[in-house]
Write a structure and sequence with these properties.
homodimer, about 375 residues, alpha/beta, 18 strands, about 30% helix, elongated, Orn_de-COase (chains A, B), pyridoxal phosphate (chains A, B), ornithine decarboxylase activity (chains A, B), EC 4.1.1.17 (chains A, B), lyase (chains A, B)
């Protein structure tokens, strides 16, 4: 998503910081992914951005949803999404939440441990469970392995355990890591999944679902594979490694790739100073109010209204709170003439920004406006 | 603050996670600090915990308040705290917030750059400003220097600049770093402050205020100096280095030391699993819902109800969200027999916990109960 005249005008007229959401871009992303992976059902990962207009747009396009909590389930129910279109994708669930989901009619539950199998068996007897393989995701910004997923042998024994506990061992999921840069990671993961499929088939257990997880990247500062390229790799890998398994349900759980490039975070310089050899620029938005991912070194493209990168300087960019952790980037290049009250755009900030927002230090998270709302506001 | 029978009973009866606040402990901390530093005015740093009962208790004891935003100012106004008892201690302020504060009657403003001086001069002409020295705070858990404060020569020129811009150059602040372990850091900082006092006196500028900042530590896992010991060092250092400057207003901005040991975060194990060689324990509270400081490696004392540390195991402790950053501690020692549904207490978690809480992943931050509320709830 590009900074356009509407956003420029809004940045001048409205109080910053705010996040602009382009719902049309979300729709485009959905349709493009759907076209790139025709046989794949899309379960949007609500955690990336749970703004109600995003959820409604995806609902209307026929998307399903990957949920992680009762809070997310209830938000979807409130806009009439059927539980049949939800998958409880968090392998760390409270038992009472499992029961709540099951009684509503949610069918699919994620597991990656024996204990989680037992919890699901107690509260959702007969549910379909899928187990998560931990992939080696060193080509991604967030290697999610470790906390989630486990090795192939363990996945096999978990699904057998599910079977013995009266659940339906239904499928395999993996996650190549959020913001993955290597399309062949999907091939590797599908190959690994096929090992589980085949071994369990020999044990009389026929899995029905392959869950590709998320991880499709959004363009920030590094080059990325396209959705179409990833779709091709996925399609070929399924044909090559899973041809024995007919009528597979194939799903994916995109988060960042649905909404990342549908948002721009608009902020303002509220202070510039020099301390010793260092130049500091302070914004009215920071780590605790939307830019949490920067402390894990996520690199946003930053644009400064009216200023160019032809001449740059080295700056430390920080947020407005009385907290040293609220330092966005140390020693980054910004236009040399960046100055007080300049408008600063964080491009492609639609995912995992306001969702992490707190009210720390008495400062509210950025307001969120859709393009339509913005048009109304500055009319 | 210790886990007592009331908290134990509440942990069994109420839904976790929740934070218990002992307001009596806050009062004790205030009185103890006041007694240790008799000539010092206490400005409670609201950001540490802005719970309304804490603010009311401190108001009633005569505390003043260090505020960082309009949000914090408004919260204090709502309980009748006079703006005369507030200091705007954030050196990164929005201009309109400066004006708002000044018009309300707030007198003291923090600055650590020329530009901030100019902003205050425009919106709060005639205000009293204090400038912050960056101290070398390598004996603390959070060395706050870098983002805040600047060197001695710069502080002098900033205060001269304030003078030329029609402000009252009023004082010097420093901050030895949050959770400081070395009491002589206060001595060093007061010595540095005295250099500024003396140099400015030669220029005809008489400073009136010494702001000791915060940094008084709370007992977690490392040994700490007591408030009394720190008070003694402060007292001696002021007599030794600042004796020329009569009728000094001396203030301190405690946050963690007022509320840190007045809170216990109560959570539950919702999953235990083994992955490869690693054992994982997942709680119903995590980094995004109260334990943010653990990702900066803050070490809480952790107790597990009914389990002892006589036999320990190495575990990775993680929160409940679908986010790998939500990993509290890697490879820590916990009771070897920690298990599903065990109650886990984070001791001395009254500061900087729920204040950072978000609603990420559809999960609400922990509820907060005072001891009195808890008694009512489990009656």
């Amino acid at each position: 998503m590009e900074v356009n005249e509407l956003i420029r005008e809004a940045a001048k007229k409205l109080e910053t910081p705010f996040l602009v959401l382009d719902i049309e871009q979300v729709k485009k992303n959905y349709i493009r992914l759907k076209n790139s992976m025709k046989k794949v059902d899309i379960f949007y990962a609500v955690k990336a951005n749970s703004h109600i207009e995003i959820l409604k747009a995806l609902r209307d396009l026929g998307s399903s949803f990957d949920v992680a909590s009762v809070g997310e389930i209830d938000k979807l129910l409130s806009i009439g999404v059927s539980p049949k279109r939800m998958s409880f994708g968090n392998p760390i669930k409270k038992e009472k939440d499992i029961e709540y989901a099951w009684k509503l009619g949610i069918e699919y539950f994620s597991v990656d441990s024996e204990m989680e199998v037992e919890k699901v068996a107690r509260r959702a007897p007969g549910a379909k469970v899928y187990a998560r393989i931990a992939t080696s995701s060193n080509d991604s910004d967030w290697p999610l392995s470790g906390k989630f997923g486990t090795d192939i042998d363990h996945v096999i024994s978990i699904l057998k355990w599910a079977n013995r506990n009266g659940l339906v061992p239904y499928g395999i999921s993996f996650h190549v890591g959020s913001q993955s840069y290597n399309k062949y990671k999907w091939q590797e993961a599908i190959l690994e999944a096929s090992v589980v499929f085949n071994k369990l088939m020999k044990n009389g257990i026929e899995l029905k679902m392959l869950n590709l997880g998320g991880g499709i990247p959004v363009k920030h500062t590094k080059p990325i594979p396209t959705v179409e390229e990833i779709g091709e790799v996925v399609d070929e890998s399924i044909q090559e490694y899973l041809w024995k398994h007919k009528d597979l349900m194939i799903i994916t759980e995109p988060g960042r790739s649905m909404v990342g490039d549908a948002g721009i975070l608009v902020s303002k310089v509220i202070l510039k100073s020099r301390k010793g050899a260092k130049q500091w620029v302070y914004l009215d938005v920071g780590v605790f109010h939307g830019l949490m991912e920067t402390i894990e070194n996520f690199q946003y493209e930053i644009q400064v209204e009216g200023k160019s990168y032809d001449k740059t300087g080295v700056f430390t960019l920080a947020g407005p709170t009385c907290d040293s952790v609220d330092t966005i980037y140390e020693d980054i290049l910004l236009p040399a003439d960046i100055d007080y009250e300049d408008i600063v755009y964080f491009i492609n900030a639609g995912a995992y920004t306001v969702e992490y927002g707190s009210s720390f230090n008495g400062i509210e998270p950025p307001k969120v406006y859709t393009i339509d709302e913005l048009k109304e506001l500055i009319k």
